[in-house]
Amino acid sequence: MASEPQSMPGETALVLLSGGQDSATCLAWALDRFRHVETIGFDYGQRHVVELSCRGNVRNGLASLHTDWARRLGEDHLIDAGVLKSLGETAMTHEVAIETTESGLPSTFVPGRNLLFLTLAGALAVRRGITVLVGGMCETDYSGYPDCRNDTILAQAETLRLGLDRPMQIETPLMYVDKAGTWAMAHDLGGEALVSLIVEETHTCYLGDRAHRHDWGYGCGACPACELRSAGWERWQAGR
Fold first, then answer.
1. What is the helix (H) or strand (E) element at residue 27, kind and residue range?
2. Which H helix or E strand runs over 75?
3. Which of 24, 62, 82, 218 has the smallest set of CB atoms within 10 Å of its CB?
4. One CATH from 3.50.30.30, 3.40.50.620, 3.90.1150.10, 3.60.10.10 for 12-239
């Protein structure tokens, strides 16, 4: 279950909560460490918009797992980032095939998505008196998105610090953790109850499939997000 907070007294955090496995794990990680935690989500016209409907259940479920987490969990903010969809087609925002493009990047890559999300989160954080952003970006098990790399996150944190003229830190607890490690982290933070919550209430599938239930959760089972989540679950289970 949750350990004693490891942050400085008075420190607060804003967690980028999509409704998926990674961001739910990051929210639990933040609730375990910070005195006060708020969440922010983004509606950018994603095909798997069902993930947004999962966010409330994830928040409520985490609050029910530990009285300290319930006390630390603050407001939620949902931001319209639909401009991303208007900039051009991707497999995350339009009915196009999930494949590798001529650039070498997957068609699920939405150019500028994480950069915009972090900029909007930073702008909100300044208004809320928050100096720490928490995101689920990862360059270990990922789809090759350049805005998930640690170098990008470090540069963005410095940009926010300079552009907002405020201290701004970006924590990425999953940056060097594979999907098996993400399942293990959830278990370390909240035991079987948190793992069950992630299985039942989070959504990762790019196609928005909530009809098919697997041991690791809901999804089509074939898209890159499902494959990563499934493979991570199997490696974690095999190593327990």
1. helix 21-31
2. strand 73-80
3. 82
4. 3.40.50.620
Contacts of 237 (CB under 8 A, 6+ apart): 215
CB atoms within 10 A of CB 182: 27
Any idea of the CA torsion for 195, 200, 205, 208, to the nearest 10 degrees? -160
> 200-216, pLDDT tens digit by residue?
999 999 888 999 999 99
**What DSSP assignment string belongs to 168-218?**
-EEE-TTTT--HHHHHHHHHHHHHHHHHHHHHHH----TT---S-EETTEE
List the structure tokens of 213.
């239930």
Other beta carbons within 10 Å of 3: 10
> Residue 103: its pLDDT value, please?
61
Query: Which residue is listed with tokens 């699920």?
Result: 108
d(CA 19, CA 178): 19
Question: Which one, of 22, 174, 41, 47, lies nearest residue 110 by Cα?
Answer: 47
